[in-house]
Task: inverse folding
């Protein structure tokens, strides 16, 4: 299902450095999507403040060597101006100081990307909500939700002064349903909600807010997990077939840069878009010339499992269940959800966990006084 392109050249929208003279803040730029986004904004000519808890000889995450200084150097090497700004975004005073620095040094701020996470080593995937460590949960909510709100709270006033700008929430996944671990679900759903809610508050301004998700991100940590490097990443497909549709962090970076350049970006306010959606909208590829399609592949594979008759093994059960949890509340996907539901032992789960049919959605709206 991998789509190959003839060339991996930079997209046309990056030609001529269209963001030259603009200033961006990528909060959470140490590695992964944040680093990729910062680099592509630099390729478009922007001055990019690369912030995060790493740097100055201090690691943001134990075992990870990447720093914001490295990211800033890459931004500069890619044609922009990278500025490392060590900041703990859960500390409001530090965020206020960062914004004051940007105001003093640049006098403006045009793009804010909230990519702060820091929860890979903390997420308790195997635990139900009655088993989780509340201290860990509190840390995750502070790092990956409150930090986003604090950052937007103090950066957007600088954008309002010029009545223009772009605020992007980075999340994981675009479906409305459950992400299979309660705190992870709460964090990533909250990121989507922030992009949507901020769009409402900004509706009468010239500032656009929305949410973007990568697909299967080939981050530094993911490459390490599979024991490969970017040069031989395909060797890991044997371990995980979905890795065939993985993407570099530059892919979502190109999507954010395309949004920033788009004079009609306001039309996307409040939406949740995938990197693949943005690639289709703006006509770009990943840096290796591919157009990864992880979400369609996942849908295709789980549909095959739902149509089968053989008992599902543990991995297959997880894939079908996870897909069902993600989509069952979407009435537009009722048919797919119904087939997945039929393969799972959920007959007595309760009405709120069953597929939502279009008729039920219409009935609910009428009960609320809708048309």
Result:
């Amino acid at each position: 299902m991998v789509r190959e392109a003839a060339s991996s050249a930079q997209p046309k929208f990056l030609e001529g450095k269209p963001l030259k003279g603009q200033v961006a803040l990528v909060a959470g730029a140490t590695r992964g999507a944040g680093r990729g986004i910062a680099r592509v904004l630099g390729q478009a000519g922007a001055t990019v403040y690369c912030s995060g808890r790493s740097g100055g000889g201090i690691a943001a995450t134990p075992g990870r060597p990447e720093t914001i200084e490295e990211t800033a150097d890459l931004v500069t090497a890619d044609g922009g101006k990278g500025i490392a700004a060590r900041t703990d975004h859960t500390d409001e005073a530090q965020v206020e100081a960062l914004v004051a620095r940007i105001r003093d040094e640049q006098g403006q701020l045009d793009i804010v990307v909230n990519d702060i996470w820091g929860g890979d080593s903390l997420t308790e995937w195997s635990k139900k909500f009655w088993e989780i460590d509340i201290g860990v949960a509190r840390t995750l909510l502070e790092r990956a939700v409150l930090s986003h709100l604090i950052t937007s709270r103090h950066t957007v006033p600088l954008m309002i002064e010029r009545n223009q700008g772009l605020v992007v929430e980075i999340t994981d996944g675009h479906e409305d349903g459950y992400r299979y671990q309660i705190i992870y679900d709460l964090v990533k759903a909250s990121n989507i909600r922030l992009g949507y809610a901020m769009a409402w508050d900004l509706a009468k301004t010239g500032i656009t807010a929305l949410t973007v998700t990568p697909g299967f991100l080939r981050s530094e940590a993911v490459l390490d997990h599979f024991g490969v490097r970017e040069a031989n990443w395909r060797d890991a497909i044997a371990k995980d077939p979905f890795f065939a549709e993985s993407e570099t962090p530059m892919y979502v970076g190109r999507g954010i840069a395309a949004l920033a350049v788009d004079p009609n970006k306001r039309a996307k306010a409040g939406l949740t878009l995938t990197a693949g959606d943005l690639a289709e909208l703006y006509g770009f590829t990943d840096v290796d010339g591919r157009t990864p399609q992880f979400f369609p592949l996942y849908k295709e594979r789980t549909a095959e499992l739902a149509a089968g008759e053989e008992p599902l093994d543990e991995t297959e059960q997880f894939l079908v269940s996870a897909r069902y949890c993600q989509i069952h509340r979407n009435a537009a996907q009722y048919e797919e959800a119904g087939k997945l539901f039929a393969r799972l032992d959920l007959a007595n789960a309760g009405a709120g966990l069953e597929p939502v049919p279009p008729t039920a959605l219409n009935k609910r709206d009428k009960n609320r006084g809708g048309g």
Q: What stands out?
A: Residues 1-7, 364-371 have pLDDT under 50 and may be disordered. Residues 134-160 form the longest helix (27 residues). Residues 295-367 form one domain. Strands lie at 23-27, 47-52, 81-86, 111-114, 165-170, 207-213, 272-274.
